[in-house]
Design goal:
This protein is α/β, with parallel strands linked by helices. The protein has 12 helices and 14 strands. It has a 7-stranded mixed sheet with strand order 1-2-3-13-14-12-11.
């Protein structure tokens, strides 16, 4: 189906932070599968995990116990707020599980009328029905029938509206990305996240964090909400969890998940042995001190350099945003055109985003030397963009 606005680039292979097209052209990849290839392309430990598991067992079904699920779930719970995990194949499936978990929680408490779920403008939670209604982006919901009951959208940063949502006796949950990805790399202030936790506890509302893009080390801590020193009740993760292999997970406290009893949810492929083997290998690497320390070091350098470019190219760059290695550069020229100029003129791959920005999303193990190369290429793209803006 013609649903993708693809770039004119046919990729053939990758290694680390580099991609090669079928014609042999080499690119520096700061898209990383949109924050997914957290360890770059063809990481040897992930490749070996696939090979080893592929020779033993791929799929059996969740009617049997799968030891790899226990191993990865134990690791996730040990390094997060969660007590329980449900494995999926993608981030949007993890969000669906989170939404169902939140509503089932209130049913278990004898309050089935509490179905209202509040999202925020600029958010992105995936493409399934529940996910698009939670984000309520018109470009994703129009043409797919009436709005689903119980989903509401708030303006990002509108504290009064959020207060009213918490006070609503039918409120079930709020869902948000601590650092927005596609919506414009906006980071919710840490004091606001702590206030949300207080309000949620006061009014019996659950907090769902979508850390599909901003989690798994992307901001310099394993989970983006750790910067605020608070925790959600439910969290959806994916992308970097498999290092490029399709894995997602919904994490929750035992209390929040008490309505998720036998038979109320399930998945054919979620948590299959092959996915669990790769996920375990990826999580072991991404959650290491070495990777998290590298993210903070390289992110500090990249952000400083991008701010420097913003000062030198005010006719091209409006603002630099984001946290860790989830960086957004708001532009004067059209962001889609800039992505093409970066690709064709500088052999640099960057991702698009809302609010006319491009996202810089390198692998978490990118070296400082590679980061310097990325800055040089971004500067070259800015120089070319300047000629186009002037023209």
């Amino acid at each position: 189906m013609g649903v993708y606005n693809r770039a004119p680039l046919e990729v053939e292979r990758g290694q680390g932070v580099r991609l090669w097209s079928t014609d042999g052209t080499e690119y520096l990849d700061c898209v990383s599968g949109i924050s997914t290839n957290a360890l770059g392309h063809a990481h040897p430990k992930l490749v070996q995990a696939v090979k080893d598991q592929a020779e033993k067992l791929w799929h059996v079904s969740n009617i049997f116990k799968i030891p790899g699920q226990d191993a990865l779930a134990d690791d996730l719970c040990a390094k997060s707020f969660a007590d329980v995990v449900f494995f999926t194949n993608s981030g949007t499936e993890a969000i669906e599980c989170a939404l169902k978990t939140a509503r089932k929680y209130h049913v278990a408490n004898g309050q089935p009328e509490r179905i209202d779920i509040y999202g925020f403008d600029g958010s992105f939670h995936g493409r399934t029905y529940g996910a698009i209604n939670a984000a309520a982006n018109p470009s994703y919901t129009e043409g797919f029938g009436p709005k689903m009951e119980g989903f509401h959208q708030l303006k990002w940063g509108d504290k009064d509206a959020l207060t009213a949502a918490f006070e609503n006796p039918n409120a079930a949950a709020i869902v948000l990305e601590p650092v927005q990805g596609e919506g414009g790399c906006r980071a919710t202030p840490e004091e606001d996240l702590r206030w949300m936790r207080e309000m949620a506890d006061k009014y019996g509302v659950l907090i769902i964090f979508d850390e599909v893009q901003c989690g798994m080390g992307r901001t310099g801590k394993l989970w983006a909400h750790e910067w605020a020193g608070m925790t959600p009740d439910i969290m959806a993760i994916a992308k970097a969890l498999g290092g490029g292999f399709p894995i997602g997970a919904c994490l929750a406290t035992a209390e929040a998940a008490k309505g998720m009893t036998v038979g109320v949810h399930g998945s054919t492929f979620g948590g299959n042995p092959l996915a669990m083997a790769v996920g375990k290998a990826a999580f072991d690497e991404v959650s290491s001190d070495a990777i998290l320390n590298n993210v903070n070091e390289v992110a500090g350098y990249l952000k400083q350099q991008l701010h420097g470019l913003a000062e030198r190219f005010p006719d091209v760059i409006v603002e630099v945003r984001g946290k860790g290695l989830l960086l957004g550069v708001k532009l004067v020229p059209n962001n889609r055109e800039f992505m093409g100029w970066a690709r064709d003129e500088a052999k640099l791959l960057v991702a698009g985003g809302g609010d006319n920005l491009v996202r810089v999303l390198p692998p978490l193990n990118i070296t400082l030397e590679e980061a310097r190369e990325a800055v040089e290429k971004f500067e070259k793209a800015c120089e070319f963009a300047r000629t186009k803006v002037a023209g």
